[in-house]
Amino acid sequence: MFVSVTIQTYNRSGMLAQTLESLRKLRCPEAVDYEILVVDNNSKDDTPEVIRRYVDMLAPRLRSVFEPRQGLSHARNRALGEAKGDIVSFLDDDVAVDPGWLQAVCDAFAQHSASVVGGRSYLVYPTAEGRPPWLPAHREIMYSRLDYGPETLVGTDKELFGLNLSVLKRVAIEVGGFDASFGRCGNNLACGEEKDLLDRIRRVGGIVVYEPRAVVGHRVPPERLTKKWLLRRAYHGAISVEQASLAGGNRPERMGTLFVHTLRCWGAVAKAVFNRRMSPEDLFERQYYAAANLGRLVAVVKRASKREG
Length: 309
Prior knowledge:
The protein is α/β, with parallel strands linked by helices. Helix content is 43%, strand content 19%. The chain has helices at residues 13-23, 47-57, 72-82, 101-112, 169-174, 193-203, 227-247, 255-275, 280-308; strands spanning 2-9, 33-40, 62-66, 87-92, 95-97, 116-124, 153-154, 164-168, 208-219.
C-alpha cells in the first residue's frame, strides 16, 4: 500500500513548518510506504524556504509542486494528479498529525474496502483559556472540530472534513475530483468542496468510513478567535451550501420570504444588543443565524441575477 500524504498551503509558512514537524514523528506500518507532497498554492511568503528546510529532514519522502491557479480545490486537484500513491490523503497546513494516524488510515482502507476515510480532529487553541466564553461548544465545528465518537462508522453519510480526509485516487479522479467552483480561494472563506466530492463518490457506490483512530489536532490561529471571523465564516459557508443545493436541482426559498426572515434575524440581534439581557453564547447564536441567512439570501439573489442575464 502506497499513500501520498498531501498538504495544500497558501501564505502560512509558520503553520506549515509545524505540520511538517509533526510528520517527522509519523510511524509507518509494515507493508506500507508513503510520500509527503506539499502543494504551494501561489504563496508569497517564505513557504519555499520552509519546504527546502524540511526536504532534508524528511528525506527521501518530501517533495513539492507549485500550483498557480488560486483556490483550494485547484490545489487539491493538483495533488490528485501529482500523487504517486493509490491512496491520497489531504491534510491542512495547520494540523498536528498523530504518530499513529497513517496506521489507522491504512487499516480502515484495508479492513472495510473503503473509497474514503475521514478521521477525528480536535482543536488546539493558542491560549490556555481555550474556547472563547461567547462561543457555544457546538459551534466549534466552524473550526473543523469533528468527533463522532469512539466507534468506526462504515458506510456513513455523515460529513467529513478535508483537514483529515483520504481517498482512493482512482475513485476520486473517476468522479471528477474537486469542483473548483467550491472551496476557499485566497482569503475567501467559501466551502462545500469536500461534501460535493463525497456525495459523488457515494452515488457511484463508494464506501465512506469514519475512523476515530486517525487523529489530527487543528491549530486555531489567534486571528480567527474573533466574532468577525466566525460570522464571515458563517456567511460564506451559507452561500456555499445554498449554491450547492441550487446546483443540485433543489428549489430556492422565495426571495421575498428569505429577505423578510433575514431582516427579522438582524432585528433580533439589534434588540438583544440594545437590551443587554442575553448571555454571550445566546447572542452569538443570533448573530450566527443572521449572518447565515444573509449568505443564503445573497446566493439566491446571485442565482436569480444570472438567470435573468
